[in-house]
């Protein structure tokens, strides 16, 4: 009886050692884990998984008020929705192992996750599993299941066994090595290590069990090649999506409201700038067929445009302007595998689930991490003072930016001071440093708040000079400050002013000056004074993408950083939002009005 119990105990320990982790369960709800990335908001995360914010909050109390980079959120797994089965990569997992778990070819997983590469196949990343895959969650375990050595799981975690390629389990004997065991079973050492990933970091232990895989010729559905290990590198190379060379003629479509009264002048100017980019490329030998369509107003359907025969042949589409047109155009682009550039909107959820979208303007929250990084680099030795303006206009308040900046400063052990704008006259002198640069940041982007601050500072600095006290004061502000340049340009220079923006230009820049002259020559008119300048936006987006396509064709996504490009107004630093979604532009400038009366546009992605 004791022997029977001992055998049973050993069997339970053995079987318990060979279970595969799947999405955990809380109550009746299966979930997987999402690691929050810098700039992500709760709405963005819910959108990329096709669920509501409330469903995330239920599993993650407190997340409605705050989430932070690095936080692991429980995301409900919706098994009943097509194309919405997700998997969080576990430590030690490989692409091949996922093909076994979900019974789906490696190519199907790679096709569903165009952002997935060998280098970013990392624990904690989430993958979209194609609909053809059937999850083992909740399925009965067959009597003949062969267990593979994957990961020890606590009893409280829901687990499920998986069909393995293990021919048998081998108990390690004294003196055996990976090479000797591989030789005895007629397999390569690499194949044995792939079946037992822990052997990469751990030595063989006498008495432990390891998986002996079937020879490659008898593994049903094997993704490997005889004699080659089924590691990530081999699977990615073997199942790489076929790329095509650059097309001899680029087919390009622009879909914008050219005839609608409200937006006509801006859209026409964007198109005019785009035409100048096309002309520049044609002079270098690039062939382009440009198709231009009027989308009509917000209530007009674009379905007739999308039904045109030539639309399915496009290499890239630019537009639309209106939110109502984005989804049908995005769906069309996804179905026909056509790149879609959204030049205008910053509110777009399609980018989270459509790998063909490039979103030029993004939510400010995605830019804040880039801004904080450069700010703490540029002003690492400064005396930082945050001015609470008491702004009542919600639109002008920068609460989110200031809150994030304070957190970043604290995380990096920066000291900063806070001062109410109403008591500046009495207390500012005590906060200023005569040994460091003093960088002042108002909590509002309004012109009213800026006017008040400049007036107060001018008086304070004048009083300090009367007392023979020197204090170098700088201002730091927001994109809106470029619209106030005419009012404050001399003050900007005097206060050594910085502001951040995703776009900036002025006619003192040689390339911008040349564009303005060429535009005047082409169209016998000046560009509109808008923020951004639509003609330059058309030129920048047209030149960047069409040049990239002409050079790299279907390999464009792998070569975005290699596109040589001098922006007139806007630069591009694209990042995929997830492995199955599209791209957002995270480029941001710092604009510096120096005391030497120079205006410098600094690309935050290239600071020293």
In CATH, what is the class of the largest domain? Answer: Alpha Beta
CATH fold descriptor of the largest domain: Rossmann fold
Q: Which stretches are low in confidence, meaning pLDDT under 50 for 5 or more residues running?
A: 1-22, 133-164, 217-229
**In total, how many beta strands?**
23
What is the CA-CA span between the terminal residues?
74 Å
Number of helices: 18
The global form is globular
Strand order of the largest sheet: 11-10-12-13-14-21-20
Can you characterise this structure?
This protein has 608 residues and is of the alpha/beta class. The protein folds into three domains: 123 residues, Roll (Membrane-bound Lytic Murein Transglycosylase D, Chain A), CATH 3.10.350; 203 residues, Response regulator (Rossmann fold), CATH 3.40.50; 137 residues, Rossmann fold (3-Layer(aba) Sandwich). It is built from 18 helices and 23 strands. It has a seven-stranded mixed sheet, sandwiched between helices. A seven-stranded mixed sheet has the order 16-15-17-18-19-22-23, sandwiched between helices. A three-stranded antiparallel sheet has the order 2-3-4. Helix 16 links the parallel strand 18 and strand 19. Helix 6 crosses helix 7, helix 12 crosses helix 13 and helix 14 packs across helix 15. The chain is globular. It starts with a helix and ends in a 5-residue tail after the last strand. Keywords: Glycosidase, Hydrolase. One of its GO terms (molecular function) is hydrolase activity, acting on glycosyl bonds.
């Amino acid at each position: 009886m004791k022997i029977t119990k001992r055998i049973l105990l050993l069997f339970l320990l053995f079987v318990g050692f060979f279970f595969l982790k799947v999405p955990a369960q809380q109550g009746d709800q299966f979930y997987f884990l999402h690691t929050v990335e810098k700039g992500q908001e709760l709405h963005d995360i819910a959108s990329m998984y096709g669920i509501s914010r409330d469903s995330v909050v239920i599993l993650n109390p407190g997340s409605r008020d705050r989430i932070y980079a690095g936080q692991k959120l429980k995301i409900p797994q919706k098994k009943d929705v097509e194309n919405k089965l997700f998997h969080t990569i576990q430590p030690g997992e490989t692409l091949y192992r996922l093909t076994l778990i979900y019974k789906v070819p490696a190519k199907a997983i790679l096709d569903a996750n165009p952002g997935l590469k060998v280098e970013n196949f990392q624990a904690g990343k989430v993958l979209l599993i194609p609909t053809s895959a059937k999850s083992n969650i909740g399925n009965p375990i067959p009597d003949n299941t062969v267990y593979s050595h994957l990961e020890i799981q606590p009893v409280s975690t829901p687990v499920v066994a998986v069909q393995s390629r293990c021919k048998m389990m081998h108990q390690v004997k004294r003196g055996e090595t990976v090479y000797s065991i591989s030789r005895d079973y007629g397999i390569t050492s690499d194949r044995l290590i792939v079946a037992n990933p822990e052997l990469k970091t751990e030595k063989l232990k006498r008495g432990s069990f390891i998986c002996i895989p079937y020879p490659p010729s008898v593994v049903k559905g094997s993704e490997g090649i005889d004699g080659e290990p089924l590691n990530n590198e081999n699977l990615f190379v073997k199942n790489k999506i076929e790329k095509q060379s650059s097309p001899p003629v680029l087919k390009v479509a622009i879909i914008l409201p050219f005839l609608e009264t409200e937006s006509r002048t801006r859209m026409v100017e964007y198109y005019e700038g785009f035409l100048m980019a096309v002309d520049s490329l044609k002079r270098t030998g690039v062939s382009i067929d440009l198709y231009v369509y009027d989308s009509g107003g917000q209530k007009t359907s674009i379905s007739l445009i999308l039904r045109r025969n030539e639309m399915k042949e496009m290499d890239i589409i630019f537009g639309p302007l209106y939110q109502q047109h984005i989804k049908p155009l995005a769906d069309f682009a996804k179905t026909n595998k056509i790149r879609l550039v959204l030049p205008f909107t910053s509110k777009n959820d399609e980018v989270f689930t459509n790998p063909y979208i490039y979103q030029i303007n993004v939510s400010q929250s995605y830019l804040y991490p880039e801004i904080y990084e450069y700010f703490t680099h540029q002003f690492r030795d400064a005396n930082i003072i945050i001015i609470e303006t008491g702004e009542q206009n919600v639109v002008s308040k920068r609460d989110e930016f200031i809150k994030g900046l304070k957190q970043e400063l604290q995380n990096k052990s920066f000291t900063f001071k806070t001062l109410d704008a109403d008591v500046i006259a009495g207390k500012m002198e005590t906060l200023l440093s005569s040994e460091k640069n003093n960088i002042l940041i108002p909590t509002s982007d309004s012109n009213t708040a800026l006017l008040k601050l400049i007036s107060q500072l001018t008086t304070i600095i004048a009083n300090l000079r009367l007392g023979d006290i020197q204090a170098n004061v700088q201002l730091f502000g927001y994109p809106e400050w470029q619209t106030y340049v005419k009012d404050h340009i001399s003050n900007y220079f005097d206060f050594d002013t910085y502001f951040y923006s995703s776009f900036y230009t002025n006619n003192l820049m040689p390339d911008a000056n040349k564009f303005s002259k060429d535009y005047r020559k082409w169209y016998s008119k000046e560009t509109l004074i808008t923020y951004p300048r639509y003609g330059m936006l058309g030129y920048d987006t047209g030149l960047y993408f069409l040049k990239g396509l002409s050079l790299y064709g279907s390999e464009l996504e792998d070569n975005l950083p290699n596109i040589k490009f001098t922006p007139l107004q806007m630069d591009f630093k694209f990042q995929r939002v997830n492995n199955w979604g599209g791209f957002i532009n995270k480029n941001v400038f710092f604009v510096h009005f120096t005391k030497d009366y120079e205006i410098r546009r600094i690309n935050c992605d290239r600071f020293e």
